[in-house]
Amino acid sequence: MLNHRTTISRIASLIGNETSARKHLSKCLYSVMIGSNDYINNYYLPQNYNSSSKYTPDQYAAALIQQYLDQLMTLYNYGARKLVLFGLGPLGCIPTEISMFPTPTCVDSINDAVQLFNDRLKQLVEDLNTRLSQAKLIYINVSSIQFGAPASIGLQIFNQPCCQVSSTTGLCIPGQKPCITRALNLFWDDFHPCETLNLYTAARAYKKLLPWDAYPTDISHLVLES
Predict the structure, then answer these.
(1) 3-state SS assignment for residue 195
(2) 3 is a domain residue
(3) Distance (Å, rounded) from C-alpha 34 to C-alpha 68?
(4) In a domain, 6, yes or no
């Protein structure tokens, strides 16, 4: 958020003043997706953090949403009026989480915890649309879009990274060749999905295929609203 404040100052210097900058920003589309690392690198990393013993999954989701609200209100006060909030994907299906549990498939307990966050995020969108008459927010149901997508879009390798990953970071080791089946792999490394899935998710976020892909509308309709 500090970097965004710097950006606003630069815009203000370019177009005249901060009032003009805020007016300009009110016409911009803000895309926000935060929360994944709070689960992957905090709640489900008990050897480094005590959050999973301190909070139940529902309490943790509530705490994250409160912090999310604080950040959104800062953006709103800076001039943001059109915001797209992306829910979290099925984090229990990423290779690093599967490797920590005795299961060859998705970890249901993690996906259930993430769904608590997503449900609260959707409710936050509804609440802020009522509370902030000048703002328009939408929620993108990433988990629902992605959960059944891989097989339908031609992906075949779901729980193995495409590149050789570091045992300490889970990221691709620099200089190593990626897999030759990268058009079939769901994940590049232990965390990040491939371009195919990202493009598919973006397409359904822009123009929803199913009614529950986006709420209350999709990006294509949000950008047309005055």
Answers:
(1) helix
(2) no
(3) 8
(4) no
Q: How many domains does the chain have?
A: 1
- Residue 12 belongs to some domain of the structure: no
DSSP 8-state secondary structure symbol assigned to residue 141: -
Read off the pLDDT of residues 41-89 as tens digits, 9 standing for 90 and up: 999 999 999 999 999 999 999 999 999 999 999 999 989 999 999 999 9
What are the tens digits of pLDDT across the range 115-126? Answer: 999 999 999 999
Give the contacts of 212 (CB within 8 A, at least 6 positions apart).
141, 144
Domain span at residue 171 reads 25-222
Which CATH number belongs to the domain containing residue 173 in this structure?
Answer: 3.40.50.1110
DSSP state of 212: G
Question: Please, what is the angle between helix 2-15 and helix 57-78, to 10°?
Answer: 10
Buried b (16+ CB within 10 A) or exposed e, 17-50: eeeebbebbeeeebebeebbebbbebbbeeeeee
What span, in angstroms and rounded, lies between the C-alpha atoms of 117 and 136?
Answer: 21
Residue in this structure with the two tokens 């050897």, named with its chain if needed: 47
* Segment 68-76 long-range contacts (CB within 8 Å, at least 24 positions apart): 68/34, 68/35, 68/121, 68/124, 69/124, 69/128, 71/1, 71/34, 72/32, 72/124, 72/128, 72/137, 74/1, 75/1, 75/4, 75/30, 75/32, 76/132, 76/135
Residue at 14 is within a domain: no
